[in-house]
Amino acid sequence: MHEFTCGHQECGSQFTSSDKDVLMRQVADHLKEAHNVQTATQTLLGYLETMCVKSVPNR
Ligand SMILES: [Zn+2]
User: What spacing in Å lies between the alpha carbon of 31 and ligand 1's midpoint?
Assistant: First the structure.
């Protein structure tokens, strides 16, 4: 599983998915809805993937 934890101030939303592509799509949606980022660029998503996504064991 991959787990995303939003690093935005006081947000801390978490998503998990077994598919990283699905997870990053959820991240893009989250950025749009919660943080008013209309276009999540590949650069931004790549950065967030590095900083905010970690692998977690399946439960
Ligand atoms: Zn957030």
Answer: 6
| 14-23 tens-digit pLDDT | 999 999 999 9
For residue 56, the CA-to-ligand 1 centroid distance in Å is 19
Query: Hey, where are the domains in the chain?
Result: 2-55
Identify which of 13, 12, 17 has the alpha carbon closest to the alpha carbon of residue 2: 17
Task: Find the 58 Cα to ligand 1 centroid distance in Å.
Answer: 23
Give pTM, 2 decimals.
Answer: 0.89
Query: What are phi and psi for residue 31, nearest 5 degrees?
Result: -60, -40
